[in-house]
């Protein structure tokens, strides 16, 4: 909200500079986000009175104005319709520079010399109004510099008002805070005015059909008003606060809203059918045109209606039909209090938030209703003339019961951890407008003012004490390290940190993708289960419309995006939650880890050239997962070919360890890799974090290390291509004694010499006994047994020597 | 024997010859070993002196061997013919990096663990009760709006803060409570340099007897010193949150200018970190804690924001672009 300091000074005295005031407000809870000093009016611009206006002989739309600029009469050419004799307006003399930087010159316009330029507000940088020349108050002496007419430049504070303090959405509200901070009294403007003629009730009628939605409604009637542009002082205040001036009636309602925070509405009484309004709910099918020109469905919304239908959406926006126009002569000033939920419902149903709805939604003071109405009537009489009818129509059930809250001094001390003297506590609460209803040595009881709906409990009062006594005075002792029992989450968090550290140690860098994924990407890289997928009913955009049920598509896309940035050696992982709809409709979450591999990311020092082969990438990926299983104490990894839509056939495997399926891995489908111009095959894997952490809480149990030396024997066998490494290991295990501790593949070899569709595999076998030193004879016997099994089971040909 | 051995070292023409010298004197059956049994039989009064002499001899020999070895190696490097190029790149396995968001969470958790906190966790998909109602959010508060919050068709929502974890913790335990709750949150913000619809928060909660605003201030000041360095200052400003009373926002003094004012802190000298406050008694009543018996404080901070401040990241979006050239800087 914008707070012009000159306006603030009308309500409260203070000595602080704008900077010091901003600091004081910020430190008491109203954050000042900006301090904007107004610009001075341009030099060389003076007040000039128009003496005579004649048509330009050679241009239809231009006129010649003879003006008195204080030095004498000069002639200027002007195109504005409102340039009339007797009007005082700003004249930019030759040499003056305007807001947009142009310098005014003595010039000839269509053959007539112009000794300067009569200016509109936008040309002077005062507003964006270009509807005509700016009108200065009558009686300003010609020749007076504009800067002097407008007064010294003001400073405007931009403050952030928190949600619980709707009372501060006004100059007077901010003034109350300033008064409390500096302990100065706050002034309210005079609202007295003369009432003439008949009673208001004879000129208009009001009925409230929905008292819950409208606990108080008042109406005043002014007749004989003359609608015109507002005087500059009024326009200037609105402009300072970012409100566009309209006319001297509407501007007053906006001025009062800004001043005291109470929204008002002015109706053209002559355009209210039956000169009566009723506060009711919109009926089925009812539509009305609001002043912004939109036609709006108001069924079920709180509206103000006349005999013909709705004329305003209560507390949100007025209607076109009864809006104040130049011909308006009688005005009905509405000042009411609407129930916040009713306004909120209307505002969100219409998608329309206004200065008015913003305040009603947060709550206005029912006790301020009549004051605001009086203030508006008094100001309108001043700016638009006319006369006010006697009295006011006031439909009000009566004020709510006062809210009494007790504040125990000891509680202030224990909650703040700081001693605040009892007198100081009482003084602060009084300065905030709370009536002190009682006081003992231990506590005081206060009555919260109507404009402070946020004061309900003792803690609310203690907050007031804290912020006005000063949070910077609260000590900051070293924390007392008390221990409280933690839950299982703590163990899991530590285990997850361990998993992250393992993945990084294996050479993978962590990435983070959004929990939202685009439906398009899911089509390109299918993963997860469309049947249980959770879609967002209100996504920010199409690319973030689905809650991910697999980390793979985004991992693949991340690989692709990095390749497009010429990063082609990638080892990545992500740990994240995935989402799926359960049978009961609610959402299940599962934490997973995805791996992505491209090229040779981790190998430093002559990494090799050329794209990695599919075999290389697959085995690298598999090796990473095997390494992970070792780090996580899950025992050996087993793989089993599967089909998976996003992965290339023949290169996709399910992963098992410690007796459970822990995930799957493989190479990204070739057609996708080609489309994304990947330089080689991309390895992808997704694993279940719960399965990976299954062993995290086991404690390693120490076993004795072997005391006796081992005997190593190599073996080379020629087998059919179809015989896999896994089958060889199985066969070796079947034939070997318990003394076999290791069987390690160290070479594979193919040649014409060994035959077509054949391969040679070389293994190193290690035998060791725990209770004795093995002899050569022992080892030879074991080795022969293994050879025999290989010959028998795999039809292997053992290559000797 | 010393002179003889030293001469032999000097005469050794290459490393192999030098090794023979070493074996002859210091090897398992070397000449110096022969002395050892003699030492044992020597008269007690001479034994110490002999031992000392033998050790001095051993040391002198080892030095001579090392000197000659170095000389031979230098000679080899200067000689012609194919030699090993020790400037070739070393071979190693490059470790990966952790995401800056993970790093900040881990650093923060480590600091709070030293103050007796443990980590608590909760689901990303929450109930309206845990995310709003139990936290004393008025039913017409704008944060409940579909324009601010991702509501799901099931009636659940994506949590807008990690505060619902505090509720879950209090529902399941009696005081004392000391937890921090890192996690992912969601708000329907349009993504720009400082906003992301998907972000992380760390909140903290302490409930015990006699917990005060001063304790909150002390805890956060201590955290600030450990996270940002000993010179950082902490400032509290009053603010409003539905679930705390009094509520504050806290700022760290600007890490760039130290408080004098600069572009990063918009000349204020302070960087807004997040919100905190004393737990509102209305929240305690929701979870069945007696606000007369227990008081507590809660605080929260945006992880991305901390990461941006700590590592000088200027655009939050870079944290989710996953450009390895960015990520690999975080070693
Ligand atoms: Zn700074």
Give a quick set of tags describing it.
heterodimer, A: 801 residues, alpha+beta, seven-stranded mixed sheet, six-stranded mixed sheet, 21 helices, 27% helix, B: 331 residues, two-stranded antiparallel ribbon, 12 helices, 41% helix, 20% strand, binds zinc ion
Explain what this protein looks like in three dimensions.
The complex is a heterodimer of chains A (801) and B (331). Chain A is built from 21 helices and 41 strands. By secondary structure, chain A is α+β, with helices and mostly antiparallel strands. In chain A, helix 8 (340-350) runs antiparallel to helix 9 (355-362) and helix 20 (725-735) packs across helix 21 (776-794). The mean pLDDT of chain A is 92. With 331 residues, chain B is of the alpha+beta class. In chain B, the strands form 2 sheets. In chain B, strands 2-5-6-10-9-8-7 form a 7-stranded mixed β-sheet, sandwiched between helices. In chain B, strand 7 and strand 8 form a beta hairpin. In chain B, helix 3 runs antiparallel to helix 4. The chains are: A alpha+beta (801), B alpha+beta (331). Chains A and B meet through helix 8, helix 11, helix 13, helix 14 and strand 27 of A and strand 1, helix 5, strand 2, strand 5 and helix 8 of B. Strand 33 (603-604) of chain A pairs antiparallel with strand 1 of chain B, so a sheet runs across the interface. Residues 254, 256-257, 261-262, 264-265, 269 of chain B line the site of zinc ion.
Summarize, please.
The complex is a heterodimer of chains A (801) and B (331). With 801 residues, chain A is α+β, with helices and mostly antiparallel strands.
């Amino acid at each position: 909200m914008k707070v012009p300091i000159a306006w603030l000074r009308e309500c409260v005295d203070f000595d602080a500079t704008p900077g010091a005031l901003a600091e004081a407000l910020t430190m008491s809870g109203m954050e000042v986000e900006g301090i904007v000093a107004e610009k001075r009016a341009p030099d060389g611009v003076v007040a000039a009175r128009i003496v005579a206006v004649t048509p330009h002989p050679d241009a239809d739309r231009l006129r010649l104005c003879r003006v008195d600029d204080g030095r004498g009469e000069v002639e200027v050419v002007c195109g504005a319709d409102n340039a009339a004799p007797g009007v005082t307006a700003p004249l930019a003399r030759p040499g003056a520079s305007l807001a947009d930087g142009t310098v005014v010159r003595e010039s000839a316009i269509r053959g007539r010399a112009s000794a300067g330029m009569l200016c509109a507000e936008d040309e002077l940088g005062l507003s964006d109004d270009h509807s005509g020349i700016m009108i200065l108050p009558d009686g300003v002496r010609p020749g007076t510099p504009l800067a002097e007419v407008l007064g010294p430049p003001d400073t405007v504070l931009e403050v952030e008002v928190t949600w619980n303090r709707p009372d501060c959405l006004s100059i007077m509200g901010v003034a109350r805070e300033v008064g409390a901070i500096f302990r100065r009294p706050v002034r309210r403007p005079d609202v007295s005015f003369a009432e003439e003629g008949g009673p208001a009730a004879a000129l208009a009628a009001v009925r409230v059909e929905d008292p819950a939605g409208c606990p108080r409604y008042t109406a005043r009637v002014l007749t004989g008003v003359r609608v015109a542009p507002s005087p500059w002082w009024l326009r200037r205040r609105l402009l300072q606060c970012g409100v566009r001036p309209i006319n001297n009636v509407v501007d007053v309602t906006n001025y009062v809203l800004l001043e005291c925070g109470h929204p008002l509405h002015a109706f053209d009484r002559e355009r209210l059918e039956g000169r009566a309004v009723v506060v009711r709910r919109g009926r089925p099918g009812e539509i009305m045109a609001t002043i912004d020109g939109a036609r709006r469905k108001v069924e079920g919304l709180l509206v103000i209606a006349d005999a013909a239908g709705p004329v305003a959406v209560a507390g949100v926006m007025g209607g076109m039909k009864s809006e104040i126009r130049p011909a308006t002569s009688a005005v009905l000033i509405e000042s009411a209090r609407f129930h916040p939920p009713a306004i909120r419902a209307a505002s969100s149903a219409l998608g329309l938030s206004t200065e008015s709805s913003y305040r009603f939604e947060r709550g206005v003071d029912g006790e301020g209703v009549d004051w605001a109405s009086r203030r508006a009537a008094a100001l309108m009489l001043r700016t638009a003339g006319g006369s006010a009818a006697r009295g006011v129509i006031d439909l009000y059930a009566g004020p709510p019961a006062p809210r009494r809250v007790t504040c125990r001094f000891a509680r202030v001390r224990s909650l703040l951890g700081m001693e605040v003297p009892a007198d100081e506590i009482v003084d602060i609460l009084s300065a905030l407008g709370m009536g002190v209803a009682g006081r003992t040595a231990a506590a005081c009881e206060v009555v919260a003012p109507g404009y402070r709906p946020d004061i309900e409990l003792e803690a609310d009062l203690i907050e007031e004490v804290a912020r006005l006594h000063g949070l910077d005075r609260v000590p900051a002792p070293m924390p007392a390290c008390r221990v409280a029992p933690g839950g299982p989450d703590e163990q899991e968090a530590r285990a997850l940190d361990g998993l992250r550290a393992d993945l990084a140690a294996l050479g993978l860098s962590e990435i983070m993708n959004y929990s939202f994924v685009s439906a398009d990407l899911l089509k390109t890289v299918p993963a997860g289960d469309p049947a249980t997928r959770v879609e967002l009913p209100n996504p920010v955009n199409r690319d973030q419309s689905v809650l991910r049920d697999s980390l793979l598509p985004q991992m693949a896309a991340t690989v692709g995006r990095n390749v497009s940035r010429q990063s082609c050696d990638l080892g990545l992982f992500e740990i994240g939650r995935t989402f799926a709809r359960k049978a009961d409709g609610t959402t299940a979450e599962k934490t997973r880890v995805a791996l992505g591999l491209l090229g040779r990311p981790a190998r430093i020092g002559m990494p090799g050239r050329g794209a990695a082969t599919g075999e290389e990438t697959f085995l690298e990926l598999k090796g990473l997962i095997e390494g992970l299983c070792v780090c996580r104490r899950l025992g050996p990894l087993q793989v089993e070919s599967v089909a998976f839509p996003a992965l290339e056939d023949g290169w996709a495997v399910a992963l098992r360890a410690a007796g459970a399926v822990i995930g799957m891995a493989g190479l990204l489908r070739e057609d996708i890799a080609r489309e994304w111009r990947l330089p080689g095959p991309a390895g992808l894997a997704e694993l279940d974090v719960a399965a990976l952490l299954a062993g995290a809480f086991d404690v390693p149990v120490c076993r004795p290390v072997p005391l006796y030396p081992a005997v190593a024997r190599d073996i080379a066998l020629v087998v059919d291509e179809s015989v896999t490494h896994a089958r060889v290991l199985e066969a070796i295990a079947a034939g070997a004694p318990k003394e076999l501790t290791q069987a390690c593949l160290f070479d594979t070899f193919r040649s014409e010499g060994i035959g077509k569709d054949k391969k040679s595999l070389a293994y190193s076998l290690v035998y060791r006994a725990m209770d004795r030193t093995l002899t050569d004879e022992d080892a030879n016997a074991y080795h022969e047994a293994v050879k025999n099994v290989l010959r028998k089971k795999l039809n292997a040909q053992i290559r000797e020597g | 024997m010393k002179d003889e051995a030293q001469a032999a070292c000097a005469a050794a023409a290459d490393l192999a010859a030098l090794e023979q010298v070493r074996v002859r004197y210091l090897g398992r059956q070397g000449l110096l070993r022969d002395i050892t049994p003699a030492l044992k039989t020597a008269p007690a009064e001479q034994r110490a002196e002999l031992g000392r002499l033998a050790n001095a001899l051993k040391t002198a020999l080892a030095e001579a061997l090392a000197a000659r070895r170095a000389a031979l190696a230098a000679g080899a490097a200067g000689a012609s013919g194919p030699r090993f190029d020790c400037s070739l790149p070393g071979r190693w396995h490059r470790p990966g990096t952790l995401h800056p968001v993970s790093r900040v969470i881990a650093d923060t958790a480590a600091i709070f663990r030293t103050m007796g906190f443990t980590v608590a966790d909760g689901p990303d998909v929450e109930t309206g009760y845990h995310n709003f109602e139990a936290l004393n959010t008025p039913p017409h508060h704008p944060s409940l709006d579909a324009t601010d919050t991702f509501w799901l068709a099931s009636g659940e929502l994506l949590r807008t803060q990690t505060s619902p974890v505090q509720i879950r913790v209090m529902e399941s335990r009696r005081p004392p409570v000391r937890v921090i709750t890192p996690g992912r949150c969601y708000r329907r913000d349009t993504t720009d340099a400082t906003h992301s619809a998907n972000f992380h928060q760390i909140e903290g909660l302490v409930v015990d007897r006699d917990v005060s605003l001063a304790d909150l201030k002390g805890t956060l000041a201590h955290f600030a010193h450990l996270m940002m360095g000993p010179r950082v200052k902490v400032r509290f400003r009053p603010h409003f949150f539905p679930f705390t009373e009094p509520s504050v926002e806290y700022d760290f003094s600007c890490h760039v200018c130290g408080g004098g004012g600069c572009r990063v802190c918009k000349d204020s000298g302070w960087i807004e970190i997040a919100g905190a406050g004393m737990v509102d008694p209305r929240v305690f009543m929701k979870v069945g804690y007696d606000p007369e018996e227990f008081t507590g404080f809660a605080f929260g901070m945006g992880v991305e924001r901390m990461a941006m401040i700590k590592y000088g990241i200027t655009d939050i979006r870079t944290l989710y672009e996953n450009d390895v050239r960015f990520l690999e800087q975080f070693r």
